[in-house]
Amino acid sequence: MRALLLVLPLLLANTAAEDPVIPPTIKSMLDAAMQSGSEGDVAVIVKYARNADPASADLVVKTATDWRNDRLAQANRKIREADFFDLVKGRAELGGYMSTGNTENIGLTAAIEVKREALEWRHKLRLQADYQESLGLVTRERYLAAYEPNWKFDDRAYMYGAAQYESDRFSGFYDRISVSSGAGYSAIKSPAVKLDLELGPAYRLTRFIDDKTESNLAARGSMDFGLKLSPSISVTQNASAYLQDANSTVSSRSALLAKLFGPFSAQFSYTLQYESTPPIGRQTTDTTSRAALVVDF
Question: Given pLDDT bands bounded at 50, 70 and 90, which one contains residue 4?
Answer without folding.
Answer: very low
